[in-house]
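Ticket closed. Logging final result for Metalloprotease.
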Amino acid sequence: MKWIGRRQSDNMEDRRGLSGGKAVIGGGIIGVIILLVKLFGGENAQQLTPILDQFNQQSTQTESRALTPEEAKEGEFVKTLLADNEDIWTKIFEENNLTFEAPKLVLFSGQVQTACGGASSASGPFYCPGDRVIYMDMTFFEELRTRFGAEGGDFAVAYVLAHEYGHHIQTLLGTSAKVRELQENRSETEGNKLSVALELQADFYAGLWTHYNEKQNAMLEPGDIEEALSAANAVGDDAIQKKMQGQVVPDSFTHGTSEQRMYWFNRGFKTGDFKKGDTFAEVE
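Final structure:
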């Protein structure tokens, strides 16, 4: 993928050089102290407050290190991808008389605290609607290649980031909130189908972004689309279930099959039509 020399976003925070942050409110010793304060209050609360402050200070202490040259380059790449998404979605929203608001992105290593709760690198990249932030641990992409058989490459990163950006678009449009509302009154199987439609629409948005960004920046190189499709194929529910448990349980799907994920990415990429992404009407 051609990316060097383009605008880079200011909406990224790189925490990969930090370690030791363990402020997990509601858990561990700090959580016990807070619980005691709430239960007993009064004089006991006053006695416990200095202890709580001490634990908070200790828990938020961090050690920092310099990023490696490879990490620094990764950061520059992600900043460029983020700027590309900002530019393209601003344009798409303007064309459809909608108001756009860019999300933040956090690069982390190991563990991270979010408005949606704590998460580890095992969660893979994700978007938290609570704070409207995309979280990514770059080691995920090596695991995607070595454990799940994806081709890897820089455009696999571009696809995954664009997919998570698609979830932000769904938050702005109210789609995510509507799905959560509908799921409250549905069975688990029916709720899972709604989750699949939501995820496939994010894949469609990733393809749509690719379409527009290619027109604007001529970014694609040979093999890039294949890298995206390989990543989409690797993270299909059927592929993951077969790999991890040896059998496929369609009613438990929450993201869609490999075939579905590749289809909807391609549909966005080939049509370039924002209105062609109604996965809810087409996913049974």
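Residues 188-217 form the longest helix (30 residues). No further action required.
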